[in-house]
Amino acid sequence: MGYVAIKGGGRAIRGAEAALDALRTAEGEAGTPLTLAAIEQQLRLLTSRVVSEGGLYHPRLAALAIKQMQGDTLEAAFALRAYRSTKPRLLEAPLQDTNRMRLIRRISSAFKDIPGGQMLGPTYDYALRLMRLDLADESPEAFRRVSRRFMDEMPDSDLPDTFPKVVDALRAEGLLPPVAAQPQEAFDITRDPLVFPVPRSAALATMARAETGSLLAIAYSNMRGYGDVHPTIAELRVGYLPVMLPHPVTGELIEAGEVLMTECEVVAMYERDDHDGPPVFTLGYGACFGHNEVKAISMAILDRALQKGMRDGPSNPSEDPEFVLLHVDGVDSMGFANHYKMPHYVTFQSDMDRLRTTQSQSGVEQKGVEA
Amino acid sequence: MLAGHIETNRTRGDWLRLWSALSPGRVKAVADGFAQRYRIEDLGASPSGLGLLPLRDSALGESYFLGEIPLARAHVRIIDDAGMVAEGAAVLLDDRASLTRAMAILDGVLAARLPGFEPILELLEEGARAVDEIAAGRRALLAATRVDFSLLGTADEDDEDA
After folding, report:
1. How far out from the chain centre does Cα A152 lie?
2. Cβ separation A256–B92 shorter than 8 A
């Protein structure tokens, strides 16, 4: 039995698209289309997730993808990746320095007195998880007052835009390993396949655009005991990184724009130095586009776990680069799960034929035993 | 060709950032005026596409790619009736080639101080005010949430609950 051409498949697919759009607009006369600005601003954490998992910092298109895919983050990230695959690559930016991030939040669980101080910024960390029923029927007037009032009530502040990093202070005390003097060329996961063993830069890039839940699940296995990172967050920061590119005429580095990102360093158990130096803490690093703290923390834990696995061999799944890096991409894993919805008529027919043959042979054998 | 006493202390490296803080319509309107006054030649296509963004990780100092960014670039030659030639360019985290070309025109006119450049200085100041406003908003997020770790009972305490 081979593939069979059928009538009406195209019509059914067009109908499915129309059905989706009909449900999107089912509010009818009472409805108002979502604006991209509303999605980008009011669902900013969702937009953050999509820019990060799509691997492209384009919040407006991410908002469009969220609207088009009706809130499905996996499909929205897929749409963003599909878009990026149609665009030419113009350049590779010079190495950017996250010390220049203009912060809106920075905390440390290692020290209370970090240089520059701790600023909670916009966070749900200390919020009661109680439903705010007033938001259910928020009026446009009340909505518009909130941000304006916040700004009006804030006195002028002389806080700087940028702050020193906690790890730099620890490093100055000799408690951390030294940084690479000359960074090696980074692995480009958009052009080259992961063929193991892969360099750490491939792992970092893969995790930076990984699906948040997948990354969290594997990091959680390490936290619960299938691993021994035992992290302390040296610093978690959220802010806007100015992207410096060469001016096409002068060649001078100029700010071409900025990206919102989250960055985290975790300090883990100390180890003896490989070159007979004094023992130092080990470190894990996580970062991603947008505001996504769970992802950055999970990535930092897995970075540390993978460093150990790459050096000593994995002793649990979260230390195995192949296991982690091949199972955290949302577009890959969604695609595999979804492909099971496609017709498998031929393979299943084959399965049925084999089962029937096995059953009939089993029946003959059974009769033979009874006889 | 300097025009009177109107000047700015903003360096060319800051210009794009300041103009980017303004509405695209405002920037394009000023650039359109120069496009009518001068002959503008595009030096190559004004492509839009993507750039790869490498960072240096702050744990071990290794480089890696955080992801991709949208980019648009423009490079123009500006020629006035007297044959004076200036070059301007822009590169933005944006995919709007027309906006980037408009900024390239502004960049070239202002860099060469071509006659009529004064409105571009006004744009710079407007942009600077917009950038300051954005920065003030971010500082407010920090200032409102700064944690006071002084120990209870050892410092003058604000009786917040009173």
Report:
1. 35
2. yes
